[in-house]
Amino acid sequence: MQSLNQFLNHSLGRVKEAIHTGSSKDSLYLITGNESGDLDSIASALTFAYLSDHKSKNKQDFFLPLVNIPKDDLALRPEAGFVLSKSSVDPQLLCYSDTIDLSVLSDVFEQIQLILVDHNKLANPFSLDEKKWSPLVSGIIDHHVDEHLYDTELFRTIKPSGSCSSLVTLHHEDVLQGSKDEQLESLAKLALAPILVDSVNLQPQYNRTTDDDVKAVNLLKQHVTLDSDTYFNDIQTAKSSIHHLNDRDLLRKDYKEWESDNGYKIGISAVPWYLQGWIERDNNFTSMVTALNNWADERELDSAYIMTAFDRENQGGFQRELLGLVRNEKLNGILQKMEQNQEIQLQRLTNDIYKTNSKHPLAVWRQQNIKWSRKQVWPFIRSTIESLEDTPKL
Q1: Which of 3, 100, 162, 365 is the most exposed place for a label (fewest CB within 10 A)?
Q2: Where is the DHHA2 domain (predicted)?
Q3: Residue 34: phi, psi to the nearest 5?
């Protein structure tokens, strides 16, 4: 088995050569994570592509993992850089969204199939041309709410799990089980990282671990000797090294957006920090709200949210906060309805530090149900918006 770097170098070189010549009889399998380009998406795409390439018997098939963010944006994800380094993966060998012209691939290759990991609905840039890319989606592995899209002819695995990397790992169990190949050590370090992070190190009290996560971790640990607690803590330390980022970069580093069935565009920025620390850095809350308004303008959002997740030792342990900003007056009732919900358990924060003269409705909460990550919060916000009476945007 070739190393991860050898595989990445070969795959990227192969696609660049095909684009240069203008045509190829090869069958391209393009594996892409979601638009946030987080650790789980990166690891899922690389793991799937690498192990699929190893299994393939057809020399004309080749697998290209796509890190669906611009190359320069990897610096916004210090935990990803840390894990890639620990896994001996050269970031320069990755294919980013701006590495090649993705729009020409379907014209260059005789056959192209799009594999979605860590999402099950086309994201940018593919969503900008649904007519072109939707028929090419042939496989999905994901752990989010099923959008019931696309006729996936190869495989379709959409089920709850802490991490998509767990499902990708188990999809290739036949390669991993019992293998003695030393090259799998780097792959195991890569795939383990998001599973540990997303499941909070498999700690059951957070209710973010499934049997698939445990099974995947046990499978990967056959190929690497490391202390899970130390690895998890080191990744968390790297993930928290974001205090130097400006407000816009904090909002876009782990960002996802959706559109509700009644036409409203919603965006959620996940930030591994606590609001008070962010506010104290900027010296006031108003600058954060201004940055969120500017980001909402840039993304043309009807409502924008910041989800924080942090663990302050000796100060309450793992916690979550949620900030909601309503930009469309038709949605002015959403913040109150969200607060009334008993599942998410939002406690309004009214400290002086959160006071600002916002022209748009704004709320800051402590999210007492810490088991709800963005995977659960987005469907909740969407259903709340769609439950408002007489609020169609279109």
Answers
A1: 3
A2: 232-385
A3: -80, 175
Alpha carbon of 65 to those of 37, 178, 190: distances in Å? 12, 25, 14
Specify the residue for token string 């002819």: 153
Q: How many domains does the chain have?
A: 2
Is residue 275 within 8 Å of residue 323, measured between CB atoms?
yes
DSSP 104: G
User: pTM of the entire structure?
Assistant: 0.90
> pLDDT tens digits for 43-77?
999 999 999 999 998 889 999 999 999 999 999 99
Is the domain of 225 the same as that of 351?
no
Q: Which residues pair with 284 in a beta bridge?
A: none
Q: CA 65 to CA 115: how far, in whole Å?
A: 9
Tell me which residue range forms the domain holding 149.
Answer: 4-239
3-class DSSP state of 214? helix
In this structure, is residue 392 part of a structural domain?
A: no
Residue 54 maps to a domain: yes
Contact present, 47 and 13 (Cβ < 8 Å) = no
One-character DSSP codes across 294-345: HHHHHHT-SEEEEEEEEEETTTTEEEEEEEEEE-SGGGTTHHHHHHH-TTTT
Residue 174 has pLDDT above 90, yes or no: yes
- Quick one: angle between helices 4-21 and 184-198, nearest 10? 90
Single out the residue in 239, 272, 287 at which a domain terminates.
Answer: 239
Phi, psi of 95 (to 5 degrees): -95, 115
364 beta partners: 323
- What CATH number does the domain containing 97 carry? 3.90.1640.10
Residue 167 resides in a domain: yes
pLDDT tens sequence across 35-49: 999 999 999 999 999
Same domain assignment for residues 220 and 279:
no
- Which domain-ending residue is among 216, 239, 262? 239
* 266-283: b (≥16 Cβ within 10 Å) or e: bbbbbbbbbbbebbeeee
Number of CB atoms found within 10 A of residue 284's CB: 13
Question: What is the number of alpha carbons within 13 Å of residue 70 lying toward its C-beta?
Answer: 5
Same domain, 202 and 312: no
The pair of structure tokens assigned to 154 is: 């190869």
Mean pLDDT of the 322-326 span: 98
In a domain, 394, yes or no: no
